[in-house]
Design brief:
about 10% strand; single chain; about 575 residues; Phosphorylase Kinase, domain 1
Length: about 575
């Protein structure tokens, strides 16, 4: 029988049965039936699996398994494309050959109709786009999985009412039904992640459910355009006195959760290197400015653009970068910035023991790692890179190798740091595209030293002393009450100790499956014995002299026996 936990999973599964079966069809289609079998999904969707279990098409055999995974995620739609893009930044979670393939995932889908755009405006603003704006282009400028962008022009009345200063704007409209689709997909992905933790030993240390939880949180923020609007406003305040960057103006009075109105930026994408050269832009200066701006976002403000790829950076006159698409933003506390800066500076100083201690500060873990082995591997890591020339050092490669080292010791970086590493690696790629001689590590060093100096400033030391003193005073104040509570529970005999058993779930499932089969076999044996007695006693009605009820019992027993045999063979247990 199923446990309460399993019944809850079944209820969630059957609530979205058609979408779940669609996902499984795609996995089978692209040759991932072995993964489905290892996850034991047949416990929840036995009937569904019988309908969709088929071999992948022969024409897919020429593709590598990572390429098949990329193709499957692209076919499954927005949620899975975003998940694949997240996994492409996690070398601790998936092998390198999958990283390179998932990095190719394209978030491009056909645009939705203008009638649907008009309906969204009616629901959000109570009027058609043509009534809301002086001009609204019904043909989208660009389309993606979350929404699409249209060009528009503000009316004079909107400008005079303080809506903004720029006449020409772009309007980002959320894709119809995307919120419900993502909610369903996230529920299914969460269920699959839990099954992975239960059945796949190789990923248990990486906690797939925690990865999915962080992914769900990030995606839910991305589809709410009011959050993106707030991100742009905060980003603009960070750089309001910096003339080397332009931040698009936003229009809060005209924006909602599903509609975002912002300034139209007329510039050249950073990816259009040839066009930048033709128009006389200073590419090394642009590369240096862009890298420094990302460093400032990360190490000074702790609030940064998490996806600064070339398509999200426009270059304006006077070599001024302009970031767009603020749906994915990263946040780092001062403590996280200080810990990471200490780690990097200790790496440069070749201090193995401090680097090992720094790695433990910026990671989470289950259990205690072997610190001697970790220190030894860090020494090998430093020998590989510290004696190269500055021009040979590539931050992206160093960070990827560091993540793989961390993964080997069953450690995981904190989620915010993954976004930071993704931003650094991406901006280095953009910088090298514009200037092959750029050295990101050299540009990062002043920012990290500034953080280091800030740790010993009198004001910072006074702040830390004050915070620590407050915590100790709170502890002293609460200690008598807590001690009294513990003594009272001991006196009444109500003190409880909780134990958490790990690794028993597979044994529990095995025993559950065994007991089900034994019960099935007992019923089968009873069926055979009962049918034999009926035939021996000659109870009517008869067919060619054989009791019909007994014959039917034997046929049913045969089907049951065959079903039990197939179930045993499918699970590889004889």
């Amino acid at each position: 029988m199923f446990s309460i936990r399993q019944l809850g999973a079944i209820n969630r599964t059957y609530r979205h049965l058609s979408r779940y079966q669609r996902i499984l069809r795609v996995l089978f289609k692209y040759g991932f039936s072995d993964l489905v079998d290892r996850l034991h999904i047949d416990q929840y969707l036995e009937t569904g699996l019988q309908m969709i279990n088929r071999k992948p098409r022969e024409q897919l055999d020429r593709h590598s398994r990572p390429a098949l995974l990329r193709m499957a995620l692209e076919e499954l739609g927005p949620t899975f494309i975003k998940l694949g893009q997240l996994l492409s930044t996690r070398p601790d979670f998936i092998p390198p050959e999958y990283l390179n393939e998932l990095a190719k995932l394209q978030d491009s889908v056909p645009p939705f109709s203008y009638e649907e755009v008009r309906q969204i405006f009616q629901e959000e603003c109570g009027s058609d786009p043509e009534e809301f704006f002086e001009y609204f282009d019904s043909t989208p400028l660009a389309a993606a999985s979350i929404g699409q962008v249209h060009q528009a022009r503000l009316t004079r009345e909107q400008l005079t009412n303080g809506a903004g200063q720029c006449c020409d704007v772009v309007v980002k409209v959320q894709r119809p039904g995307i919120e419900n689709l993502i909610a369903v997909d996230l529920e299914i992905v969460a269920h699959l992640a839990r099954l992975m933790e239960e059945h796949l030993e190789e990923v248990q240390g990486h906690r797939p459910t925690a990865v999915v939880h962080e992914f769900a949180r990030s995606l839910s923020r991305e589809i709410d355009f009011t959050i993106e609007l707030a991100n742009i406003q905060r980003f603009a305040r960070q750089f309001e006195k910096n003339s080397e960057i332009h931040v698009p103006e936003v229009y809060p009075l005209l924006s909602t959760e599903r509609i975002l109105v912002l300034e139209r930026v007329d510039g050249i994408k950073a990816s259009e290197v040839g066009k930048l050269k033709e128009q006389g832009y200073d590419l090394p200066l642009i590369a240096r400015r862009g890298a420094n701006l990302v460093m400032e976002q990360i190490f000074v403000h702790g609030f940064f653009h998490a996806d600064p790829h070339p398509g999200n950076i426009f270059i304006l006159p006077d070599n001024v970068p302009c970031f767009i698409d603020f749906g994915q933003m990263g946040r780092l506390s001062l403590k996280e910035r200080e810990d990471f800066a200490d780690l990097v500076l200790n790496l440069v100083a070749a201090n193995e023991s401090r680097v090992a201690a720094g790695v433990l500060k910026v990671t989470t873990r289950q259990g205690d790692p072997d610190q001697d082995a970790l220190t030894r591997d860090i020494g090998d890591f430093m020998d590989r890179y510290l004696y190269l020339s500055l021009g040979e050092l590539k931050a992206g490669k160093i960070l990827q190798d560091l993540l793989e080292l961390v993964s080997r010791h069953k450690l995981s970086l904190k989620p915010n740091l993954y976004l930071m590493l993704k931003a650094l690696t991406t901006v280095e790629g953009v910088g090298l595209m514009l200037d092959p001689d750029i050295a990101l590590i050299n540009l990062a060093r002043p920012f990290m030293k500034k953080i280091k100096v800030g740790q010993v400033k009198p004001s910072r030391l006074a702040q830390e002393f004050g915070e620590t003193s407050t915590e100790y005073l709170a502890l002293i104040r609460d200690l008598p009450r807590e001690a009294r509570s513990i003594i009272s529970q001991l006196r009444r005999g109500k003190m409880k100790l909780e134990f958490e058993h790990r690794g028993l779930r597979p044994l529990e499932q095995s025993l559950e499956r065994t007991s089900n089969r034994i019960a099935f076999a007992i019923v089968l044996a009873a069926q055979i014995i009962g049918s034999s007695l009926i035939i021996h006693s000659g109870i009517p009605p008869h067919w060619h002299g054989i009791p019909v009820v007994g014959l039917a019992g034997f046929l049913l027993a045969g089907v049951m026996g065959f079903w039990l045999l197939v179930s045993i063979i499918r699970h590889g247990k004889f």
